[in-house]
Amino acid sequence: MKMKNILLAGVMVYMGISLLISCQEEGLVVNGNDISYINFNKDLTKDTTRISFEIYPLEVGMDVKIAEVPVEMAIFGKIQDKDLEFTISLDEDMSTLPASQCVLSEKYVFKGGQLLDTIYVKIKNSPDLKTTTKYVALKINAEGEVGEGVATYSRAIIAVTDRLVKPDWWDLKDITGGYSTVDYYYLGFYSKTKYRMFLEILKENDDELFDGKDKVKLRKYSLLLKYEVAEYNELHPNAPLRDENEELIEVPVAG
């Protein structure tokens, strides 16, 4: 039943995506000199941001975990030479997470002279996310000097759960041919067991919310995990470390 609910939530979101794009294709955006079109910088049909509350610490004095999620924005049309204020809202037709769990600022600012900028939205955890995944769909509010951009970048889709999920940076295809450097050069193929061990190393280095972008840190932490696995295997030669699928845990980083 739990898996059925998760699949149903995903189907509802992607049905909403298909309907949204088909409706917006009828009125394609035309660049103008008087309107700044703001888009999210991820294709909503391909790039879902995944958030796992399990990796977020409970802040002192808080009774619920809150994730501050970075959302990258892009602008075209009229490029402003001054800071441009805009607002975003929750697309409740496409979202399955209650609006009360998504905390949005009254206004956001796109810095003047920039083509890309990043805003932050806050999402609250809830007990039901221990057993399910819910979705947040954010949209730009077209008003004043701000227009909504092209359909496939008009929503930011965020999948939220309190279970351990593969982080976006691990799956980033940044090698020619569509392969991930994390898989092939650093940590090796993903498993929950390996990721939990990696998270413990991040905690020891006060870098729990590591985003995978700093390759120097990625190499450093991957090496620490490699040494930890090697040390365990040396102490247990007849029972080397295996993951939840009974596969040997291997870390390919050189060093």
What does this entry look like structurally?
Helices cover 25% and strands 23% of the residues. It has helices at 2-24, 181-186, 192-204, 215-235; strands spanning 36-40, 49-52, 66-77, 84-86, 88-90, 102-103, 108-110, 116-124, 134-140, 146-148, 155-161. By secondary structure, it is α+β, with helices and mostly antiparallel strands. The strands form three sheets. It has a five-stranded mixed sheet, with no helix packed on it. It has a four-stranded mixed sheet with strand order 2-11-9-5, covered by helices on one side. Strands 4-7 form a two-stranded antiparallel ribbon. It has four helices and eleven strands.
Topology:
Blueprint: H1 2-24, E1 36-40, E2 49-52, E3 66-77, E4 84-86, E5 88-90, E6 102-103, E7 108-110, E8 116-124, E9 134-140, E10 146-148, E11 155-161, H2 181-186, H3 192-204, H4 215-235
Parallel strand pairs: 1-10, 2-11
Antiparallel strand pairs: 1-3, 3-8, 4-7, 5-9, 6-8, 9-11
